Amino acid sequence: MFGQKGANIIKLMYEKKEFLILVFTNLIAQLGITYYVMERTHEGIMDVSIWILFTVQLIIIFAMALVPMPEFMKFLLFCVFSYTFGIMLSVLKKNYFSDLIIVAIQGALTVFVFMMATGVALLVGGINIGYNFGAILFWALLALIVTRLVFYKMNQTNKILSFIGIILFAVYVIYDTNKILQRNYYGNFITASMDYYLDILNLFTSFLGFNDN
């Protein structure tokens, strides 16, 4: 029985191979844009600018989710999103040593790869994570955000919350992997790669917060 399920998953991945290639190609491209902009942006940005960029990102997310548009338009909006995220992350260079940033990048990518493999393994084992579990993750994320806003000045509490964030977004990678492999995206690889992009960026910032002294 296990062998048959594994064979079905392999068959599914083969059938979606072109879609998955597009997902990861776009993911790598968007992460590259973010990292390049983060490294090349040397001038600091004001708090008000961060909120403007955050507002732009929210508008882009809602536009991509709710407004019908061709894939190339979604790709361009994703590029703008990645660019603005890079500008926001450039502030980190003033607050963290470059070695710590590299460690956080390595940690985020390691967790992402391991949890993605775990998500595939769960499917091979016949475990399908439904949308109800996704709703639980959403409310957990909302609670984490609110708690961070309340205790943002308490360093030790932020370290604990960052550790919780690592666990939460690691589980998100499993959920998104399960969803990407099972859901019919009708060729919309942009949305699938956006899910992974946000997982990795949130893992990265959580690792930074956890390793901050």
3D architecture notes:
The protein has 213 residues and is mostly helical. The chain has one domain. The protein is 84% helix and 0% strand. It has helices at 2-15, 17-40, 47-66, 71-89, 92-95, 98-124, 131-150, 155-182, 189-211. It is globular, with a radius of gyration of 18 Å. The model has no long low-confidence stretch (mean pLDDT 86).
Describe the structure concisely.
With 213 residues, the protein is mostly helical. Helices cover 84% and strands 0% of the residues. The protein is globular.
Largest sheet: none
Oligomer: single chain
Shape: globular
Rounded Rg = 18 Å
Strand content: under 5%
Secondary-structure-derived class: mainly alpha
Distance between the termini: 50 Å
- Unreliable spans are none
On the 0-100 scale, what is the average pLDDT? 86
Keywords:
single chain; 213 residues; mainly alpha; 9 helices; 0% strand; globular
Which secondary structure elements does this structure contain, and how are they paired or packed?
Elements: H1 2-15, H2 17-40, H3 47-66, H4 71-89, H5 92-95, H6 98-124, H7 131-150, H8 155-182, H9 189-211
